[in-house]
Amino acid sequence: MTSADFRVEANHPMAGRFLPAQGEQQYFVRDRALAVAMAAKSFTKPSGEIRVVHVPTGEVVFRKAAPRAEFVSDEP
Question: For residues 38 and 9, is the Cβ–Cβ distance under 8 A?
């Protein structure tokens, strides 16, 4: 296996057109821009979060949180 500097990870399986395989929870890539693009264009369960982690330092360089539910009132 080749070394990778960035890990795209989620707490639930991910799906997206730019992922090499669907349903995985982590992918390793060498390029930061590619890792962020993969994370930004991917999705997971509504309660999930997708992160890009710099493997050598453990720093989270990108985070895509689940969309927050908006409170909708039926009162005018």
Answer: no
pLDDT tens readout for residues 7-18: 999 999 999 888
Rounded Cα gap, residues 61 and 53, in angstroms: 6
pLDDT in tens, 34-54: 999 999 999 988 888 999 999
The answer to whether residues 48 and 23 touch, using CB atoms and an 8 Å cutoff, is no
The answer to whether the beta carbons of residues 59 and 53 sit under 8 Å apart is yes
Look up tokens 């990870």; give the residue. 9
1 Cβ contact partners less than 8 Å away, ≥ 6 residues apart: none
